[in-house]
Amino acid sequence: MLALLPKKGDLHDLLNWRPISLLSTDYKIVVKAISLRLGRLAGLVLQEPELRLVLSVYANDVLLVVQDPGDLPSDPVQLVVAGREFPKPTISVSPSRVVALGGSVTIRCEGLYPGMEFFLHKAGHPKLHVPLVVPNGTVAEFPNPSVSREHGGSYTCEYRSITDQSRWSYLSNPVEIIVADPSYPKPNISLRPSGGVSLGKWVTIRCWGQHQGMRFVLNKEGRHFPPVDSDGFGAVFSFSIVCQEDGGSYSCSYHSRSEPFAVSYPSDPMELVLRELPPPGPSISISPSGVNAPGRVITIRCQCWCEARRLLLYKGGIRIQEVDADGDGGEFTIPNARQADSGVYSCRSRSRAEPPNWSDPSDYMRIVVAELSYPKPSISLSSSRGVTLGVTMTVWCWDLYQNPPPLSPDSTLSPH
Q1: 163, 274, 344, 379: least surrounded by Cβ within 10 Å?
Q2: Secondary structure (H, E, C), 218-239
Q3: CA–CA separation, 150 vs 54, rounded Å?
Q4: Are 135 and 114 in contact (CB under 8 A)?
């Protein structure tokens, strides 16, 4: 890039302008080396009076003037340097980038501004530039009603202003058109493990056909998989399930390694089903807590955000009751507690749909029901009056079967 700085004198004379380079140092070193080599041949090419080349740069325009020092300057010749200033367009293929031989396909190129002329390019065919003027809209469509093998390939598009053809957009991202070749039968596809797959697990998809030495492609909307060369008649794709979008419909196809845009018809679709993440375990509470007398009503509540799920109650790891969750949980009732109801309880939830989606188990809670054959013990204090801090107290606790020794204050928490 050059800029001109005024010197002194008549500024209508281009010799009174000083050119200054705004290019990088590396570029100037290369240009200097080239100019030194060309200077040796200048005397063989140029005739007297010496010709001078003066460059005058205004924005994107370059003005070339060839001048004999003894003559008046010639008429100026304007050399326009095209600039890419519009954002790159969006390119897409409809109805699918995989097209049957003889089928129809449309390439759609969308810009941001009206009044543009669009150009479609195919990789490897530099002379193919399909123009389409769109004076009012922002979208250009390039239809192909009958696709042949030659139409397979990688395409890009760009656009320029109709009124100022020096103003171009950047080139779009490439899009591929793949022609399905009827001479290649569609492959088979299988999935392991079959059934639902949880997040974080690995899956293996195997594709195989009737030809050896082929290159297989795994197809899924919105995801790209690198092609895999066959190990005989088939190929294997293995990957980890990292998000919900990894579930869905998969198919595969294959093509010759020398003709990547002429492929087989896709296999039958195969559905990869993701299992739901297990919800957190419910919270569990028991009322009343502590030791319960026989015959009391005990309520076990399991609480969770588990609407439209089933709640299950476990005792000692064995399922004993099951109810439909209501809103934020559900309750289980022991209407007439017995000593046999003592034990460790927990609960969890599961979906009503099959296959069930299980939650983690809750914490464990213990229910204690007193034994009828053991009457309640008696208790007394060594002093029935109030005591001051630092005074030793004695607590007696006894039953009908034995007369235990008095308990010291430090041993009152030990059962006897």
Answers
A1: 163
A2: EEECCEECCCEECCCCEEEEEE
A3: 49
A4: yes
Amino acid at site 309 = R
Residue 382 lies in domain: 376-416
Torsion over CA of 53, 57, 60 and 64, rounded to 10 degrees? -30
Q: Which residues contact 64 (CB under 8 A, 6 or more apart)?
A: 53, 54, 55, 76, 77, 78, 79
Residues comprising the chain, all counted? 416
What is the total count of domains within the chain?
5
- pLDDT at position 36 is 67
Cα dihedral 37, 40, 46, 52 sign = positive
Tens digits of residue pLDDT in 152-202 = 889 999 999 999 888 999 999 999 888 887 778 889 999 988 777 877 788
Closest CA to 125 of 86, 107, 152, 93: 152
* Local structure of 262: helix, strand or coil: strand
Question: In this predicted structure, what is the pLDDT of residue 347?
Answer: 92
Looking at the structure, tell me whether residues 77 and 90 fall in a common domain. Answer: no
CA 388 to chain centre: 71
Which tops the pLDDT comparison, 404 or 194?
A: 194
Backbone angles phi, psi at 211, to 5 degrees: -120, 145
**Domain-ending residue, one of 81, 112, 145:** 81
* Residue type (1 letter), 143: P
Which residues 6+ apart lie within 8 Å of 316 measured at CB?
A: 343, 344
- Regarding whether 102 and 173 lie in a shared domain, the answer is yes
Same domain, yes or no, for 211 and 146? no
Taking alpha carbons only, the member of 405, 331, 401 closest to residue 371 is 401
> How far, in Å, CA of 223 to CA of 246, rounded?
8
Last residue of a domain, one of 48, 66, 81: 81
3 state SS of 244: helix
How far is the C-alpha of 118 from the C-alpha of 111, rounded, in Å? 9
